[in-house]
């Protein structure tokens, strides 16, 4: 931890070893009141130590959507199970592009002299 971070944190009436033990007890399911009684300190001091615990994030930062609430509801409604948001958005965009391409093919009028020939998207090299 940087010195600046350490300086900004509140003083705790527990030693670093006791704070680490308090966090371990909390992870095992002990209540803050029980931990405070074990170390003989006020509950507020134990809570200060527990606030500094690292905990897993339910969503990754890649899951942040900077969109309107209506667009957020749409994406969440299209989500499959606990699929990551980025995968849902990628899937929706892929479906949109496929639908647009299909609509463009339906709108395209055939040239004189018969139906239009389908051209490959990428040049095919003889090989």
Would you kindly provide a written description of the structure presented here, covering whatever features stand out?
- The chain has 127 residues and is mainly α.
- It has helices spanning 3-8, 16-27, 32-39, 43-51, 69-78, 85-107.
- It is built from six helices and no strands.
- Helix 2 (16-27) runs antiparallel to helix 3 (32-39) and helix 3 (32-39) crosses helix 4 (43-51).
- 6% of the residues are buried.
Brief digest:
With 127 residues, the chain is mainly alpha-helical. It has six helices and no strands. It has helices spanning 3-8, 16-27, 32-39, 43-51, 69-78, 85-107.
Q: State the total count of DSSP E strands.
A: 0
Distance from first to last alpha carbon: 59 Å
Helix content: 40-55%
Rg, alpha carbons: 29 Å
Order of helices and strands: HHHHHH
**Overall geometric form:** rod-shaped
Query: Mean pLDDT, as a whole number?
Result: 82
Which structural class do the helices and strands define?
mainly alpha
Mind sketching the topology for me?
Layout: H1 3-8, H2 16-27, H3 32-39, H4 43-51, H5 69-78, H6 85-107
Helix pairs in contact: 2-3, 3-4
Salient structural properties:
127 residues, mainly alpha, 6 helices, rod-shaped
């Amino acid at each position: 931890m940087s010195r600046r971070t350490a300086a900004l944190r509140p003083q705790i009436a527990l030693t670093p070893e006791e704070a680490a033990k308090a966090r371990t007890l909390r992870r095992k399911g002990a209540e803050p009141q029980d931990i405070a009684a074990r170390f003989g300190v006020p509950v507020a001091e134990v809570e200060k130590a527990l606030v500094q615990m690292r905990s897993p994030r339910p969503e990754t930062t890649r899951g942040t959507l900077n969109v309107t609430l209506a667009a957020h509801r749409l994406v969440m409604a299209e989500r499959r199970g606990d699929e990551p948001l980025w995968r849902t958005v990628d899937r929706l965009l892929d479906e949109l592009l496929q639908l647009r391409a299909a609509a463009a093919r339906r709108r395209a009028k055939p040239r004189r002299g018969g139906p239009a020939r389908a051209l490959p998207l990428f040049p095919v090299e003889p090989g």
